[in-house]
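Example 3.2
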Amino acid sequence: MLELAVSCHQGCGHSPFIRTYMWAESCCESLVYTLSDSLVEMELLFLPDTSFSSFVIGLLAFLLLLKIFSQSLKTSRLPPGPAPLPLVGNLLQLDMKKPSMSYLELSKTYGSVFTVWLGSKPAVVLSSYSTLKDALLTQGEEFSGRYIYPVLQKSNEGYGVVGSNGEQWKQVRRFSLTTLKNFGMGRRSIEERIQEETNFLQEAFLEKKDLLFNPKFIVLNAVANVICSVVFGRRFSYQDKDFLFFLKTIDGYFNFLSRPTGQLYNIFPKIMNHLPGEHKKVFADLEKLKMFIRNEATSLKAKMNPDDPNNFIEAFLAQILKEKANPQTEFHELSLENSVMNMFSAGTETVSSTLRQAILIMMKFPHIQEKVQEEIDTVIGSHRTPCMQDKQNMPYTDAVLHEIQRFMDLAPIGIPHTVIKDTEFKGYLLPKDTVVIPLLSSALSDPTMWKTTDSFCPENFLDENGAFKKNDAFLVFSLGKRACLGESLARMEIFLFITSLLQKFTFTSPLPLLELDISPELCSFGRMPRPYQMYVKVRV
């Protein structure tokens, strides 16, 4: 067996590797289990004959080594990386509370493409802007698969935009992009829906005038209501019990992902499914949320006009009706509810965290806050509601908002990809379905691409004349075919919410500026703003 494996390994391409691996693995497992069962049945493993026992142990050890060798054939052309341990791989070498930092450190030793083992599964990490660009853009088709990690599989069932692959992903993503881009449907655009919510957010902040408060849930309310307006065609009161359940469920889901328990579920899902813990409640609450979405869809379906949809659900339902005669359609109720779930899970915590980080940075740097307000006063004034057209005349504000996102580095490792076929990349061979981790943080902190990487510096996005300067390494929303579906919506929310708040208020901290920590907290999911208290002062 060993000689055959070696002969297949020599002078051949990837396909013989895979065939040899599958053959050797199958033979080894079959022999190990058959021999073990037979010996136990015959009670030979318990004979006192030490020479025979030694023979059996030696044979089992040989078969185990052969299995390990056959495994190495499959991964022999993967990029280099730290040596893994049996069963746990490199998990003991990674900080599971902040894996992105571990990957950045490993890239200093192994280069911009390296392999780590997450348990028994290899994952290829891509670091640096040029490497990410080569993979996700130049070879975007090959790297367009999504690794459906167990938490995502459990919550999305293989449907929606984030948690799907193949035709399901292609069709639903294309539809969602078109629908959001052309959201002139009904009577109001997305921009108008956000502008409406800015008024409610201003009122909520005004109620906190002269009071010390944490803005987390007020901001989360506003961002979630934008998604509700887009998805359901209506907003909710900040005190509505269904709306509060929405927020609590999404917050609980992200807290679970941010803790080591969420990582353990992704690595050992079968074991975790049999154990008690917070994951049980998280998944139960997500099912209740899906039931709410299902009921809303039923209600909207009864009164909708398929030719004039007023929200995302109605547009999706109209597409279901349009394709009901197509047996291969990817548009059905399961796809609808999971697509809506994706919009809430991907579009609430991320944007609201960015807004909270923006407020924190404004308090830390009063001179920057004042300069943004001067630009708002000049371009917009004190009474007119900000609109997206204003942004082109506000280069400093635009630069500050971009730098907030770069500095925050919200999702340092993005969502893992897979290669959809055997892929040659930078001299290595990535077998089909290999997990790929895009280390977006490496682009946002690439010293060759930025003036300053470690400190907050709006000049990273300004030229010598003070005009806004685009930077290709700004990969906050990832890159290529799997780039964030809601990028344009998120950009719109961040600009309109921040400018409308700074138009009316000045933010201050109860702490001395030197004690105000703006560095985001690292967690397994990403980098979140630190909890803080604040005051708002009404501008005259």
